[in-house]
Specification:
6 helices, 138 residues
């Protein structure tokens, strides 16, 4: 019996970059929409707390996340398609990891939405809904 904990699925560097861009871009989008600093920190912790292949990819030291633009719309134009692409890619390679990725992003969203004493603003809720729609578009 083996105690090997290395993920069985292997992803290309480009695929890993897509996952990281989608995940960390989600936190950036929520921040741009107005989540408080504490919420963004909690969302980032949710990403680095992921397990499985997704956890290994998201916790790897990397400089391949390049989010550019000066507006929320510019950021959304990069992140929302990356979320859909990440889900499509993972569903092809490992449906279980696609489920894991989706759950990780949802936990990050929830952490961002519920980290402050007040209710999230309508703008933040709308952005969270757009992120979820992008996950579901795959």
């Amino acid at each position: 019996m083996s105690n090997n904990t290395t993920p069985a699925v292997t992803l290309t560097d480009e695929a890993k970059s897509t996952l990281r861009t989608a995940a960390y871009g989600t936190v950036s989008l929520l921040a741009a929409a107005g989540t408080p600093h504490k919420g963004n920190a909690q969302a980032s912790i949710a990403l680095t707390s992921a397990t499985g292949l997704v956890g290994h990819v998201l916790s790897a030291k990397s400089k391949d996340i390049h989010l550019t633009g000066k507006t929320v719309a510019d950021l959304a134009d990069q992140v929302l398609p990356a979320l859909t692409a990440a889900m499509t890619l993972l569903e092809t390679h490992s449906p279980a990891e696609a489920t894991n990725f989706r759950a990780t992003i949802q936990v990050a969203i929830e952490a961002a939405l519920h980290s402050s004493k007040g209710d999230p603003t309508p703008v933040v809720i709308a952005m969270a809904n757009k992120i979820t729609e992008a996950l579901d578009a795959a």
